[in-house]
What we know:
With 183 residues, this protein is α/β, with parallel strands linked by helices. The protein has helices at 3-20, 37-40, 60-67, 80-92, 130-140, 154-165, and strands spanning 50-54, 72-77, 98-101, 115-121, 141-150.
Amino acid sequence: MSNEENRISWNRFSEYYQSIKYISLNDIHYGPYAPGEKELKVLGDLKGLKCLELGCGGGQISIVLSKWGAEDVIGLDISEKQLEYAQALAKKENVDVTFIRGNMEDLSKFNDSSFDLVISVHAMSYVEDINKVISETSRILKANGNFVFCVLHPIQIVLWEALEEKSFDKIYPYFKTTRYKWD
Length: 183
Ligand SMILES: C[S@@+](CC[C@H](N)C(=O)[O-])C[C@H]1O[C@@H](n2cnc3c(N)ncnc32)[C@H](O)[C@@H]1O
């Protein structure tokens, strides 16, 4: 799927996605069926940090980063609809987060060595060129900055519909490497 198709798909999907998924506003979630930050403790002290979330979706993670003391939080997403949801949610939660529309492969709007933390949860699997995301992230991170990201484990894809539908009729091959298509 091209980035443009991706943007259009997430615009169409956003309202439904946000209505069916529960995404915590009291913990940083690391994706479906995964333990969150309170349990994993990978981020450390966020106080005073400048953070960027790539593929922020409905903004829940950016909002929690801000609630937990990050000084400056930017959420970037390719979908206008996801960002509309994120903006409304941040207002409701009374936190100050900047949401920007953009493609995470192109972070040219950000200066070199300008972030302490870049985080991306369950979003990097959607991009066309993951190498661009990694090299751009490396450029904008400060020398001791951290890049925390997670993507779905292949077993999640294999079992996705089985877990959702509580039926093991549809199980995909673990070693299938072609792109996963959703309608
Ligand atoms: C599964 S959602 C996850 C959203 C959020 N990180 C969360 O955990 O709730 C994936 C998000 O990635 C965004 N996305 C996909 N491709 C992107 C790209 N190339 N650049 C920026 N955002 C992208 C989508 O619009 C969508 O909001």
